């Protein structure tokens, strides 16, 4: 499968009378955005704001972050099964608006997740302090159920992102990158000497605010399957989860998954990037067994030499991670796993809730329990009402001087387990 | 497939399942509930759902519902290992279960219920 990705760099976002992209500036008409968001009768109001890197702005509680894209050639459209029809995507030509994101924020339940600081120490922990963010806060109709509200916000974000992406359809990209995968046979013939490597991506799939969707299908209902890695670049996987925001994959991370991009970089040079295998992280233990059995089976059937396995979340998914690792290794396929740690505030506790000797190559996204002080910022988009009730916070979180004492787990993307974060060790 | 029972400290789950399922409702803190599950596992019940399900951290949410096999068999080592690891993990977190307003407690109950519901949906296929 061959996908040409055209990158259009956005230098600024401004509200204007007419929506367009000109000279790298995205102009958006608020009324058009509102009309797009309010298509769903479950949303009665929406407000839009712009947060730029370096500004004294805190966005919270963040639900999702989305990169606007548009499919200009080839089958299907962006976010298949959600915004576009369910055609298989990942081939042809797609444009992405780089340097910006649509961020959805707002209350769904009384404990809320996700902080993006655009400046200060918090900004150093989230990749989304570097993007120009068009933030939308949706207000639901009265007496709405949390499930319906979550779905309405999720879909409104995708509609707005697709609307903005569409503005780029007739532009010429600033840069073009080509991603191409081979069929099994082609790969074997073309790269007989190179190790056959796949990416096993584990998707959070447990319940309200804990779900992920593949072509519109709730990931807890899938059995492990194979994707061409280019499919995710068209939005084949989207996020519906944000609880404990540090190690959840917003849609933006799925679209720009660094494991996929790095494997493509090495494809044909040091390895043969065979495919992406997706699996889930369900609550029911027999589901965990089935999914890890199937993942290992697929690795064997594909004659892989190695896989990179990325986790999403912590605790219960540690079990899925170790089951996957152990079973794939038992099939003779080498594994490298990517996780993060909850090692206590002092970093001295056991990092994972599960372990095995087979997990002898581990990459960590960082310690989510690490404490950080976030100074008071001039402006809040969303609300701080829930900040004492988010993961890693407490009643002492909001200090007298307006600063916040929190654990890294409150910061969107801080310890991301695909490597889409800013922490490293030396 | 064996029948199952739900061990829970979540009043919403207990209410929703009353008369429909075998429910053991006990009004105890999160960690205590895990210890109750451990006792049942030592009596020969098997864990059917993961004791650390959900991303709301132990003791940050007061609620947990765990699915166990209804029948007692030989003690299942995997269940023992899993519940012990869960208790150990739970000990790492600060207890914040008394610091919320009523509305927040209800939301925590709802989240725990949706996690349990997803496990039941899988279990009921059998």
Q: Tell me, briefly, the overall form of chain B.
A: globular
**What is the CA-atom radius of gyration of chain A, in angstroms?**
21 Å
Strand order of the largest sheet of chain B: 2-1-3
Can you summarize the main beta sheet of chain B? 3 strands, mixed
Number of domains of chain B: 1
* Share in β-strands of chain A: 25-35%
Radius of gyration of chain B: 14 Å
Task: Count up the domains of chain A.
Answer: 1
User: N-to-C SSE series of chain B?
Assistant: EHEHEHH
Q: Which secondary-structure class do the elements of chain B indicate?
A: mainly alpha
Average of pLDDT of chain B: 91
The level of helicity of chain A is 10-25%
The proportion of residues in beta strands of chain B is 5-15%
| Sheet having the most strands of chain A | 6 strands, mixed
Protein name (chain B): GrdX family protein
InterPro entries (chain B): GrdX-like (IPR047735)
Modified residues (Pyruvic acid (Cys)) (chain A): 242
Keywords (chain A): Pyruvate, Schiff base
Protein architecture, described:
The complex is a heterodimer of chains A (426) and B (126). In chain A, 20% of the residues lie in helices and 32% in strands. Chain A has helices at residues 30-37, 120-123, 146-166, 184-190, 251-255, 258-266, 285-301, 316-330; strands spanning 2-9, 12-15, 20-22, 25-28, 43-51, 57-60, 62-66, 69-73, 92-98, 100-105, 116-117, 132-140, 175-180, 196-204, 210-214, 217-218, 225-227, 237-241, 272-281, 306-310, 334-341, 362-367, 371-374, 379-382, 404-407. In chain A, strand 20, helix 8 (316-330) and strand 21 form a beta-alpha-beta unit. Chain B has a 3-stranded mixed sheet with strand order 2-1-3, with helices on both faces. In chain B, 45% of the residues lie in helices and 11% in strands. By secondary structure, chain B is mainly α. In chain B, helix 2 packs antiparallel against helix 3 (77-91). Classes of the chains: A alpha/beta (426), B mainly alpha (126). Chains A and B meet through helix 7 and helix 8 of A and helix 3 and helix 4 of B. Chain A: Keywords: Pyruvate, Schiff base.
């Amino acid at each position: 499968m061959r996908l040409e990705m055209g990158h259009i760099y956005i230098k600024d976002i401004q509200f204007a009378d007419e929506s367009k992209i000109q000279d790298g500036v995205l102009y958006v008409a608020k009324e058009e955005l509102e009309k797009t968001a309010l298509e769903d009768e479950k949303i009665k109001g929406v407000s839009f704001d712009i947060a730029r890197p370096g500004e004294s702005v805190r966005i919270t509680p963040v639900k999702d972050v989305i990169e606007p894209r548009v499919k200009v050639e080839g089958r299907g459209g962006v976010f298949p099964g959600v915004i576009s029809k369910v055609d298989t995507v990942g081939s042809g030509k797609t444009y992405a608006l780089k340097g910006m994101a649509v961020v959805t924020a707002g209350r769904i339940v009384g404990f809320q997740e996700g902080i993006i600081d655009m400046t200060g120490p918090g900004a150093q922990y989230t990749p989304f302090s570097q993007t120009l963010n068009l933030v939308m806060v949706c207000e639901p109709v009265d007496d709405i159920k949390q499930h319906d509200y979550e779905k309405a916000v999720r879909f409104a974000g995708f509609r707005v992102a697709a609307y903005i992406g569409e503005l780029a359809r007739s532009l010429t990209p600033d840069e073009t990158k080509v991603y191409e995968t081979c069929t099994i046979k082609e790969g074997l013939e073309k790269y007989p000497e190179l190790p056959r490597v796949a990416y096993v991506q584990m998707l959070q799939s447990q319940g309200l605010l804990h779900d992920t969707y593949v072509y519109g299908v709730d990931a807890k209902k899938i059995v492990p399957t194979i994707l061409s890695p280019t499919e995710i670049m068209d939005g084949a996987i989207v996020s519906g989860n944000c609880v404990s925001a540090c190690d959840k994959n917003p849609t933006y991370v799925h679209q720009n998954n660094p494991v996929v991009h790095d494997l493509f970089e090495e494809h044909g040079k040091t390895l043969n990037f065979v495919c992406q295998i997706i699996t889930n992280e369900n609550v029911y233990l027999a589901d965990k067994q089935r999914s890890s059995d199937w993942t290992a089976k697929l690795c064997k059937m594909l004659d892989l030499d190695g896989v990179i396995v990325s986790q999403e979340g912590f605790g219960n998914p540690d079990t899925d991670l170790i089951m996957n690792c152990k079973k794939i290794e038992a099939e003779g396929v080498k594994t490298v796993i990517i996780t993060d740690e909850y090692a206590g505030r002092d970093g001295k506790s056991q990092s994972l809730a599960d372990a095995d000797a087979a997990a002898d190559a581990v990459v960590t996204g960082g310690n989510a329990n690490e404490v950080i002080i976030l100074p008071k910022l001039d402006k809040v988009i969303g609300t701080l009402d829930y900040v004492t009730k988010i993961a890693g916070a407490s009643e002492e979180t909001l200090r007298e001087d307006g600063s916040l004492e929190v654990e890294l787990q409150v910061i969107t993307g801080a310890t991301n387990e695909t490597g889409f974060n800013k922490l490293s060790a030396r | 497939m064996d029948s199952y029972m739900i061990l829970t400290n979540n009043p919403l789950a207990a209410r929703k399942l009353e008369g429909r399922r075998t429910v053991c409702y006990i009004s105890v803190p999160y960690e205590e509930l895990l210890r109750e599950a451990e006792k049942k596992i030592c009596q020969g019940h098997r864990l059917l759902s993961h004791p650390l399900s959900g991303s709301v951290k132990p003791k940050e949410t007061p609620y947990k519902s765990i699915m166990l096999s209804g029948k007692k068999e030989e003690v299942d080592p995997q269940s023992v290992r899993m519940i012990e690891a869960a208790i150990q993990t739970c000990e790492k977190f600060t207890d914040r279960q008394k610091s919320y307003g009523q509305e927040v407690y209800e939301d925590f109950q709802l989240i725990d219920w949706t996690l349990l519901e997803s496990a039941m949906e899988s279990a009921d296929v059998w």
